Request: fold
Amino acid sequence: MSVYKPPGAVNYVYDFEFNGTRFRKSARTASKREAEVVERKARERAKRDAERQALTQAAFKGEGPLTLGVATARWWQEKGQHNTNSETDFHNLARMVAWFGEDRRLDDITDPDITAWVAARRGERIKGRETLKDKSPAPLVKPATVNRSTVEALRKLFTYARKKWKIRYSSEPEWREHRVPEPGEQVAELTFVDQERVRAHLTEGYREAAMFALASGLRLNNCLLKWSEIDWEGGRLKVTQKGNRTHTMPLSRDMRAILSTCIGHDETWVFTFPLRRRSKQRRVLGERFPVTYYGLQIAWRRAAEELGIDLTFHGLRHTTGTRILRQTGNIKAAQKVLGHASAATTSAYYAHATEDDVRNALDATPLNSPRIEAPQPKKRRRSKEIE
Reply:
């Protein structure tokens, strides 16, 4: 009997076997009829799970169709969870599966399907909010975010399946046609005046982390340094950046000065902050805690909003690259600092030119410059016919 009430129990229990696996659980009801309904649903669920597992194993062996649920799970296991931005990748996969369905075959996703998905994503607002704190409408998701969370995320899955799992498609979507046009180059640079305003505004711990990001050009997640990544004697630091590549860079005078102020605060983490407000988990004022990814991100965003600075935390990295190029003109040096695999990336995204740069370039070539010569008028030759 698969549904019964144990001696002394109030609720019924279902107990059955399927494919060698035993399923026993409380139905959470004192009604036998309701318990039988729960047991029937449990059997159906067990059957579906077994079928899905069989399809998954077949797909992994190349013996069956590759569904989106199988593909995303396998990609996450093999690659996604090891990426630097793994949390973002996970959310993108979840959004993808929620839209298309986990049972959708990968080779059944067509251009019209992607068009509808991108259109829906473009209509969403940031953080899923309708309004901001000031009751004004929340802005729509930026085009770059739309592209990364839809077209680029799905394209990575298709490409990985083709290259690593040797999946063959009769045709692939026209990826370029689905990309939302993004704004042209925007100068993302912190001025020296705003730099000092930010330094004075941020609180201890977050101030040092932000200034270190500006001094080093490191990404936000790489700024969450451990002392084990700092080599004082060798005068360098070593971090793991995007693509799981090791990035080694020398410590500058500014970087050393910032790090020296953090010595003795924590045995493991470089940047920490003293507790200023008690909570249920943290009760000792003045006790230091490590600066976290989201904590630093929120601290910067609040400071930028209050100071009226239109710059994300990643803009500090752009500022570093631009300043190096402006001061030295050495794009290879900027590439090494930023840890780019190619100097083309540095040139395309970090070699910003401000209005002052353009003005200085124009002033360097005045009209009376000896290098600019006025063209000489040519002498007209008389025609023989006239003569």
Q: What stands out?
A: DSSP finds 15 helices and eight strands in the chain. The chain has three domains: 3-60, 68-178, 192-363. Residues 68-178 form one domain. The mean pLDDT is 85.
